[in-house]
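#onboarding

Welcome to the new folks! Below is a worked example of what a typical request in this channel looks like: someone posts a single protein sequence, and someone else replies with the predicted structure as tokens. Don't worry about understanding the tokens yet, we'll cover that in week two.

Example request:
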Amino acid sequence: METYEIKAAIIGKGKQIKDLANTEGVTSSAVSQVIKGKTRSKKLRRAIAAVIGKPVSEIWPENTTEGEKAA
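Example response:
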């Protein structure tokens, strides 16, 4: 998924980046960096995927690790 699609999907679920950041105990910037693909965090990828309701491998198919494919 493209960055704007991920953000739109989060908003479409009634959430904001800052909500996700607060829930996960990280900064909004950290969540944004993962969404943009600039950094990788299994924890945040799984949290984003859970909010969107899609598997991690569908959101970031080009660089999903084996451990994330099941998530």
